[in-house]
Amino acid sequence: KLDILSQSYLTEATTFDNDSSILRTFAQLVDYHPYETAPRQQYAMLLLYTLRYEEAAQQLTIIAEREENNKQLWEDILNIYIELNDSKKLIEVGEKALQAGSNKPVVYLVLSNAYLIEDQIEKSEALLRIALNKCRENLFDEPITPYHHSLIYGSLGDIYSSKEMLDECYQYYDSALTLYPENTMVLNNYAYKLATNDGDLLKAERM
Fold it and tell me: What spatial distance separates the first Cα and last Cα of the chain, rounded to whole Å?
């Protein structure tokens, strides 16, 4: 009955953009039934629908902490913090996603980038090398695309760029572009590095 009731409220909520009374109703349902998953998950969906990303992530995190091995839920929360561009939360949630058994290249890429933003360079590089080995051995849960493989090489290039180890940086960027020549992120970073370090300016201009 509770699931049917919360679902009916959710259906009604989609016809009202950011309707505060519907939000209050769902908040009350969650308060009255704090250990029920369905109303809390539907409340989180409504919060996402009304662009209240932080609140949605908080509600989903409550569920995920009860279901620690629910890797899909941790991945959903990770996507919210990507939207919020919160590197500290991306580290916290990304690590929990991996602990829950998440095995997708995007999780490794997002977490390694968050480490890099937070100056945890060694952690970032170590994670990318694990991801690179998974690519080579086809150990991810989903087929690896040239684009994802390219992003891993490009991210390693970014790490060596931050260390000002230019030879290694360029080698990884070259490997990334060999796999996926249209990788705009790598093209832009490579061109910038060449232009600002007395590199091949003609090559930089072509990127």
Answer: 60
**Alpha-carbon distance 98 to 104, whole Å?**
9
Cα–Cα distance, 140 to 111 (Å, whole number) = 16
Contact 204, 191 (CB under 8 A): yes
DSSP state of 18: T
**What stretches in the chain show pLDDT beneath 50?**
1-10, 13-15, 204
SS3 (DSSP) at 205? helix
CA dihedral 96, 100, 104, 107 (to 10 degrees): 0
Greatest Cα pair distance, the chain, in angstroms, is: 69
Distance from chain centroid for Cα 104: 10
| E-assigned strand segments in the chain | none
- Name the pTM for this structure: 0.82
Whose structure tokens read 């694990």? 130
Helix (H) or strand (E) holding 71: helix 71-84
Encode pLDDT of 6-54 as tens digits: 444 445 544 455 557 778 888 888 888 888 998 899 899 989 988 999 9
Per the structure block, which two tokens stand in for 20? 């505060």
Q: 26: closest CA among 8, 6, 11, 49? A: 6
